[in-house]
Amino acid sequence: MMPQSAPSISSDALLEVDNLVVEYPVGSRIVHAVSGVSLQIARGETLGLVGESGCGKSTLGRAVLQLRRPTAGRVLFDGHDLTTMQGDALRLMRRRVQLIFQDPIASLNPRRKIGDIVAEPLVIAGVKDPEKRKQLVHEVLSAVGLDPTLVVGRLPHEFSGGQCQRICIARALILNPEFIVCDEPVSALDVSIRAQILNLLEEMKARFGLTLLFIAHDLAVVKAVSDRVAVMYLGRLCEVGPSEQLFARPAHPYTALLIEAIPMPDPDIRPAETVPVGEPPSPIAPPSGCRFRTRCPRADQRCSDEMPELRAVAPGQFVACHHPLI
Amino acid sequence: MNGNILLSVEDVVVDLPTPRGNLRAVDHVDLTVGAGRTLGVVGESGCGKTMLSRAVLQLLPKKAKLSGRVMFDGQDLLQLPPEKLRKLRGRSLAVVFQDPMTSLNPVLTIGTQLIETLQEHLELDDAAATRRSVELLAAVGIPAPEQRLAQYPHQLSGGMRQRVAIAIALSCEPKLLIADEPTTALDVTIQAQILDLLAREQRRRHMAMIIITHDLGVVAGRTDEVAVMYAGRVVERAPTPALFKKMRMPYTEALLAALPKLDAAPHTPLPAISGRPPDPTRPLRGCSFSPRCRYAVARCQNEKPALEAAETKAHQFACFHPIEDHADANA
Lengths: 326, 331
Known about the structure:
The structure holds two protein chains of two kinds.
Chain A: E1 13-26, E2 29-42, E3 46-50, H1 57-64, E4 72-77, E5 80-81, H2 87-94, E6 97-100, H3 114-124, H4 130-143, H5 148-151, H6 161-173, E7 179-183, H7 191-208, E8 211-216, H8 219-225, E9 228-233, E10 236-242, H9 243-248, H10 253-261, H11 301-305, E11 311-314, E12 317-319
Parallel strand pairs in A: 3-8, 3-9, 6-7, 7-8
Antiparallel strand pairs in A: 1-2, 1-4, 4-5, 9-10, 10-12, 11-12
Chain B: E1 5-18, E2 21-34, E3 38-42, H1 49-57, E4 65-72, E5 75-76, H2 82-88, E6 93-96, H3 110-121, H4 126-139, H5 145-148, H6 158-170, E7 176-180, H7 188-205, E8 208-213, H8 216-220, E9 225-230, E10 233-239, H9 240-245, H10 250-257, H11 298-302, E11 308-309, E12 316-317, H12 326-330
Parallel strand pairs in B: 3-8, 3-9, 6-7, 7-8
Antiparallel strand pairs in B: 1-2, 1-4, 4-5, 9-10, 10-12, 11-12
């Protein structure tokens, strides 16, 4: 598999993913979940990763954190290759990286009190003093907008989805990590709650100096929080670029279709006439060449013969397409 | 709304007994849908929009208590004997759910399910029913429809299953189709395809439709009228263009403002609605939105505003302090 590279605008990369491949067997066949993805995230940056179900974005997020070991490729975090790390070294490194999941209620053990759930990373990290733990739990719960005295003794089912996501964020923050993978953190939440959590993530990012990989299928949500956006389709990156630039002038036909398909809350904008056709093929048997070609209005013979590499089309903007829109 | 009223929901209340006390899921709702028209019902989880649609379909949980009147095509559905009701559902009153597997039987082929529905409601022989099934699958955009008849639901993608569910719902030419979050489980490109499909079939069949959704974006370009629900009540109701041009209810405005905008710069803080909806087992005396409303005053806490019309009869809202000028309120 040829590498796809998308240099970041800053040279100070906290995370560098280099030609990452994740494949796993389903029965006698192989799912090509991530096929040679490279990207960099600068310290303090939020990189948004968008794509539809099954495009491999969550698998990529997990492979970055070594929750699923990649088949090939490297993941450099602050210069250390996580893919070769084992045991204690990996456990120590994991304190610096955290994950927030889509389903906040399912992420919390229903039988444990909130205070214990949020303190657990401290226990694992070896903070032995219960008073110290209590103090840190109170601090982080206040930071995410919950009243610690009202919250610590209660069980997850006593909280709404939005509050559970606040608790998950508190748990992710308690070890003072540098990098958080947010995997669809607001897609299970209602609109009014979603805005609260997005604002909270932004506040926490500024306050704790975080770097984020923000995975979501909703382009408007991704744009709201990301400095740069990477668009993924069937295991490969289609396009990477600064958020505003990418939305204003998408270079990849798939990015353009995704933007066009968003239902706009404005009756004066008629729904697009050119609705994207078809459905994504199976990652078990991805198309040859460009993986988007089976749904692409611009596809020709070259697209099936030759896999497009990411290349620069504008400052900071990279596209993997033989017939880009710009 | 002139023309023929096909569905009229009159003062409908749905109460559900829970261990925590009575839960009022739908609180005195009145709605009408004209023949061939599309109504969007918008609200967040727990606002009662799904219970309202279940009340119309008479598919409420067994323990639920329903009062009020649901008139459909000249018949009072609450008075209809079960057998007649069953005949009506699927024939002139059809539904598409969020998860197509709610309505599809996993152990029967697509063909069996379509043909069964057709023969249940229309007098068709096997050959005619099969022919019609193929036509229906083709109409909803399923490639190679003849081969699909022999397939089971699990062999299809989520988008394809939803198309099959729509084909079954459309099979007997219903007068009203209720689509309850029909695209929420689908990806954005598939969502656009399914919404287009529903719109096209609706126009072609002159069918009325209720789209239930949490997404203001889904109703904006695709409905004639919108009803916004909050805590079991309709809090604003208007023709779609009028609603988006001039929202009067602060909740509707806040809901729209809380959506991330594609044309906003990254890292723009979102005007979030603070707090969360009230506990439906602990009804508030005043306006249910008042604890979260930035315009609320003492009266809002003590008295429930009625859903009333303002300058035009079609635009109703339940608020003591409606937004007067949309532009000013946004500033």
